[in-house]
């Protein structure tokens, strides 16, 4: 077991994560976060964590020590608190009970891997995969963003207690998820909705619990009789309420509802029963990148495979920033692998929503004039108020707005048209960095926390570029750069230790240079601080990547197909009965009938 594993012995969060109950939510905070160490804790805000000064050198050792102690002590004490709290909650009566006592032990253990999932195929050296894009594919970044703008037509969260989001059902099949227009799963959902009015738990067969997080459990489910399979996150509303996590669940749901991107989760439907709140999403059979990395020779990916995964993650982050969402929880555990080998970034309950002001720097044709009249990009501006962001349901798609032009050059200063064809990159550049976002929350995963979060200086979208650097480092080297002997040491290292690279494995200069640019401790000097993903895309590490067609690139590895038919069907597999049935089976430790190898 490598050093990483020992610190990640948790159901999902192999890294120790701190999700704080934010004491003083800023106006731009998307939601109040609660912490856990198994990893999201109810405490963890560093007391008095105001501006500590820009540089590490200026931070008094005492003051930092105090903050780190508060964070880490709070963290470890909450681990136990959480375990006992969950027991107290009588979660046995509900979904939480699926976490049997063994699970609880695993959650608070520092050792051992909990996830049993595995990806059997080896990761190939995807050296040529990025170049192998099909020229005929009709996708591009530009199209993605235009279509995403349309997705704002129906963003309503359910107002009634027991229903799916049927108030918007007329839109819900394809209008608000244009990328899913030809998706059979959408059609199946829509067919049931037109037949029965609204979807509910009873329409699904729950086949297997895939995992559990702090606010719910995720089940592999079939929309009964359709052979359409989903990942359904089921949350106990009573438990959410008593643990003050309703807002967190709401934030996640609202963000999921707003997404329509190939590398982000599709929320097919959401419904509530008296007891449960359920999110129905795309099922990813390939497991997560943490698990997949553990199976690689040397526990690190080949550089070309890394290039593929981080390029897709970069596009996902770019899209999120355009929506005004700072992700804040990038780590391999949160990057799932779809059935086609492409990635899906998951877990949005730490995300911060804020205002964005997209700016078109360079159009595809370098001629700004047509864009003034017919803006190519429609970006959904996120709002500042935490709970009102995606609230108004079925809003007319009036939220597209003309991008501001970065340059105010007069016509005569512009390049003549005949130079346009000589542009190296035909892709337009759009900056939508929510750089003004400021949160004082202490959230994230210790090894991935940005220095400005630890120092309590307030943070914005640059934290995603820091975590992107750590993520890149971990995939390449098989470990994170600042990991210490414990959480406290890790936080000290992040703030005060210089970046170092191990001698092995050998990694290209370009990769190390990119990491150096991203892991700059002062956010304002960090790569991508000003122009976001665009700056990173242009780095030599990504040379040769066809950004517009990356969805057609050959992934390093395709997961083995899941033989859904071979999954034994639980005796009682529909609706709440299934939940209770699985719960009882798990309590007895007798869920063998559900055992099969997914990944
Ligand atoms: N779409 C999916 N396909 C396959 N497995 C999934 C999917 N979504 C989640 N899972 C599995 O379910 C587990 C729990 O997911 P969930 O999102 O609840 O975890 P989490 O990030 O810990 O949640 P939370 O942030 O609410 O604590 C994950 O570890 C993952 O293995």
UniProtKB/TrEMBL annotation:
GO terms for molecular function: ATP binding; protein serine/threonine kinase activity. It is an enzyme of class 2 (transferase). Residues 1-54 are annotated as: Disordered. Pfam families: Pkinase. Its EC number is 2.7.11.1. InterPro entries: Kinase-like_dom_sf, Prot_kinase_dom, Ser/Thr_kinase_AS. Residues 204-542 form the Protein kinase domain. Keywords: ATP-binding, Kinase, Nucleotide-binding, Serine/threonine-protein kinase, Transferase. Belongs to the protein kinase superfamily. AGC Ser/Thr protein kinase family. It catalyses: L-seryl-[protein] + ATP = O-phospho-L-seryl-[protein] + ADP + H(+); L-threonyl-[protein] + ATP = O-phospho-L-threonyl-[protein] + ADP + H(+). This is non-specific serine/threonine protein kinase. Residues 28-38 have a biased composition (Polar residues). PROSITE patterns: PROTEIN_KINASE_DOM (PS50011), PROTEIN_KINASE_ST (PS00108).
């Amino acid at each position: 077991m490598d050093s990483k594993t020992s610190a990640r012995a948790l159901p999902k969060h192999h890294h120790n994560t701190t999700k704080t109950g934010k004491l003083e939510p800023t106006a731009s905070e998307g939601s109040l976060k609660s912490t856990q160490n198994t990893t999201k804790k109810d405490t963890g805000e560093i007391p008095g964590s105001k501006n500590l000064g820009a540089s590490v050198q200026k931070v008094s050792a005492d003051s930092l020590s105090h903050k780190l102690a508060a964070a880490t002590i709070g963290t470890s004490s909450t681990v136990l608190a959480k375990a006992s709290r969950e027991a107290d909650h009588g979660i046995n009566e509900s979904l939480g009970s699926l976490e049997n006592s063994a699970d609880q032990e695993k959650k608070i253990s520092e050792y051992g891997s909990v996830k049993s999932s595995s990806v059997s195929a080896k990761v190939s050296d995807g050296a040529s995969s990025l170049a192998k894009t099909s020229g005929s594919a009709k996708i591009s970044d530009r199209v993605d963003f235009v279509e995403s703008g349309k997705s704002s037509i129906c963003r309503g969260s359910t107002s009634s207690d027991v229903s799916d989001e049927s108030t918007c059902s007329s839109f819900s099949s394809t209008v608000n998820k244009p990328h899913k227009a030809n998706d059979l799963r959408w059609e199946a959902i829509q067919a049931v909705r037109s037949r029965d009015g609204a979807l509910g738990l009873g329409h699904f067969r729950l086949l297997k619990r895939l995992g559990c997080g702090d606010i719910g459990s995720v089940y592999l489910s079939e929309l009964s009789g359709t052979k359409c399979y989903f990942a359904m996150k089921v949350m106990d509303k009573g438990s959410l309420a008593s643990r003050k996590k309703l807002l967190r669940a709401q934030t996640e749901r609202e963000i999921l509802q707003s997404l329509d991107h190939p590398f982000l989760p599709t929320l097919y439907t959401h419904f509530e029963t008296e007891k449960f709140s359920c999110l129905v999403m795309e099922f990813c059979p390939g497991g997560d990148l943490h698990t997949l990395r553990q199976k690689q020779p040397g526990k690190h990916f080949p550089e070309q495979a890394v290039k593929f995964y981080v390029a897709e993650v970069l596009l996902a982050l770019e899209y999120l920033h355009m929506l005004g969402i700072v992700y804040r929880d990038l780590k391999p555990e949160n990057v799932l692998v779809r059935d086609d080998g492409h990635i899906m970034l998951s877990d949005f309950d730490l995300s911060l929503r804020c205002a964005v002001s997209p700016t078109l720097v360079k159009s595809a044709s370098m001629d700004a004039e047509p864009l003034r009249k017919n803006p190519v990009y429609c970006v959904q501006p996120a709002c500042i108020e935490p709970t009102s962001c995606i609230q108004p349901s079925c809003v007319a798609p009036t939220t597209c707005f003309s991008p501001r032009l970065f340059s105010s050059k007069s016509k005569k200063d512009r390049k003549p048209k005949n130079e346009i064809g000589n542009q190296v990159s035909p892709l337009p550049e759009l900056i939508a960095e929510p750089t003004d976002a400021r949160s004082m929350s202490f959230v994230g995963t210790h090894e991935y926390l940005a220095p400005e979060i630890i120092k309590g200086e307030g943070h914005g979208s640059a934290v995603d570029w820091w975590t992107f650097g750590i993520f890149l480092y971990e995939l390449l080297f098989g470990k994170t750069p600042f990991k210490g002997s414990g959480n406290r040491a890790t936080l000290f290292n992040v703030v005060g230790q210089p970046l170092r690279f191990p001698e092995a494995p050998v990694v290209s200069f370009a990769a190390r240079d990119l990491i150096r640019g991203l892991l700059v401790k002062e956010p304002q000097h960090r790569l991508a601080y000003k122009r976001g993903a665009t700056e990173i895309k242009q780095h030599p590490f990504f040379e040769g990547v066809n950004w517009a067609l990356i969805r057609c690139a050959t992934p390093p590895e395709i997961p083995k197909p899941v033989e859904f038919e071979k999954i034994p069907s639980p005796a009682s597999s529909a609706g709440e009965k299934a939940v209770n049935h699985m719960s009882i089976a798990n309590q007895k430790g007798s869920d063998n009938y559900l055992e099969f190898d997914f990944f």
